[in-house]
Amino acid sequence: MGDELRVGMLAPISWRVPPRHYGPWEQFVSLLTEGLVARGVDVTLFATADSITSARLVGSAPTGYSEDPGLDAKVWEGLHIAAVFERAAEFDVIHNSFDFLPLTYSRLVDTPVVTTIHGFSSERIVPVFEEYNSSGYYVAISEADRHERLDYVATIHHGIDMRAFEVSEGPRDYLLFFGRIHPEKGTVEAIDVAQRAGVPLVIAGIVQDREYFERLVAPRVDGERVAYVGPVGPDRRSELLGGARALLHLVRFDEPFGFSVVEAMACGTPVIAHPRGSMREIVRDGENGFLVTSVADAATAVHAANDLDANAVRASVEQRFNADRMVEDYLALYRRIVERHRSRL
Fold first, then answer.
1. Pairing of strands 42-47, 56-59
2. 3-state DSSP call for residue 41?
């Protein structure tokens, strides 16, 4: 039945698909799109024009507006979203991974719209989801991220390409912070933990909050005890994650998912995290990492991480968070929604 299904896949256009370094929503779209195409699904990907895919590509914006500051985000988002809805009749289902704005087009077409909600940037955007709650099909990326005022057709955890990550046999002689540098991601807390534990820290990621970085992070970067290596792309990700004693994910917000957490575990690297958002669904305390509530507890966990078996850490996520499982879950959901939609016509 796969080859009978026609999917219009709407990606964000902040970054290219797949992203060169940072871009979790774009990473999700890429993995899902390629998995669907491999299963014979007819996918048209609406993404930046420089995106790389085996699907049919429609690109309105030349590149991601986070990659080219000269692009006006609102202009290109408007053209981008319109492109998929103007062709809605060509698809059995439209999959929206763009956030709330495409929902405002959804009642103008007969094609069902599945929306993966990648978290809520603010409570201020929730009214849009509420307005289209009865007509939309919402997917949560973790049980923790379900909003109490919305209805969902499924919770589907993200998956990763397990083949891109492997357990390292080398020394694990540093701690790792991997993600956007922003107060809510806990970069400074990671430095505090590493200092207390007496283990070097490597910081990798884009600087999202420049003032925070310059004032609180950069002064503590000395290249030895604390090193900043910038954004890290797919070519270096496995090596960097696999060489760490532990990934420090001391977030100060309710994390909707956390790709780097699963990627670290796929490399056999345990994760030390605050028990916020989806972390309770991913981190199994004492098996593939530790859930902690203070800097002192996190520093203690750093030393306990040495006792965890790397292969067991990988095994804990190998099936649960494999991209193949994610693709099959979405494919089953599409079929269910299309059948429901057709029965109402």
1. parallel
2. coil
